[in-house]
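Can't paste images in this forum, so I'm doing it all in text. The chain is below; anyone willing to post the predicted structure tokens underneath?
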Amino acid sequence: MIRESLTPRSLLLLALAVPAGAQIDVVTVDDDGPADFSDLQAAIDAAPAGAAVLVASGSYGDFEIASKSLDLVADRDAVVRAGAGTVRDLAADQRVVLHAIRIELFPASGETQPLLSILDCEGHVLVEGVTVEPPPGSEFLVSAAVWVRDSDEVLFVRSTVVGSEESQGIIGTHAGGTLPGDAVHVVRSRVALFESELTGGDGADTLVFNPESFLFGRPGRAGVGLSGGFVFAADTRLTGGKGGDGAVLPLGGACFPGRPGGSGASVTDGGELVVLSVVATGGSGGTSGGVPCVDGLDGKPIDVADGKTEELFAEPQSLEASRAAREGELLTVTFRGTPGGSAFVAISFGDLFCFTRALSGVLALPNAPAILSLGAVPGSGVLVRTLPVPELGPGIAGVSATAQGLAVVGPTELVLSSPTRVLLLDGSF
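Text version of the structure:
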């Protein structure tokens, strides 16, 4: 095990100690330039298990990653826009990383579905720096922005998710379940949310066609909807969507009330929600169609119909690293945490999901062949270390690892940070 400060020397020692399993193939994708592939799905299908698919700026279609390990990573400074994505059927020893992808284009299937589905995964899924937001006018194609079902280890880090506005049509079904307009809907799964922002979809307004023909408005939806399973949220904002407005029938007819706003978080079916420094806000209720109808109720910050919640009291810590750094380039590591605390970073080539109250977080590393000191956190609360990426060695296209910080706060308190994925590349890419 390597135990020393984070320096060019320590990074070199780590690179030399990389096990064969962390040395990965790299496949490149560019929709309008020289690369291994121009089509994203073709690159995913052709990539060897465990490889990194490095994506250049551009607009790409829907994608699916099934039953194999893969890192899907936007290149440094690239803006990658994609259609609906699916990660499914991962075995316990498989892992998928989605890093800095914007999932915001119309689903190609033309069917009602989430923009991102994570289904039936025993293995690890890390969603880092990802934006999931339905495009305007897509309410008939998109319901829950993210749907997580029967999956054991799903982590969202520094991601933004916005639920779709619910249409007046049928909300639709997906894999046997009804799709709400939640930002993230979790069914019988374990999920961690770090430094993310989740906003539920707005409810549709009441529509009146004539005195005999109308459609009732819909309530706003939750930032996160938990239906069984477990969610840990740290330094995250959960906001419910606005309730649909009411209406008045023409020619002095009846009025319709506003619909209720969505909750910041909704817990049902025996789910468990644990929060650390979370801002949860209910969506505003819709306005009524007039007297004597009333406005809709504002949503609750956290609505527990069947389940339990727990709040932890510690200051959240954050770790972020450059997402794709080549040999000779600078790798930047940023730790945000408690001023005066001592910051460390552990680096591992495996994955884990272990909630621990003692460390006020979710441990994402099964072991740590390297534990490096970042130093004391200054008064600003932000500690930055920049160092060059060493030569990876002959025949090594890339190295992929997970890093997670640990802060020593005061004499006895230890607090985990968010995890981050580090991809080091050969200088030829």
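The radius of gyration is 23 Å. The helical segments are 8-16, 40-46.
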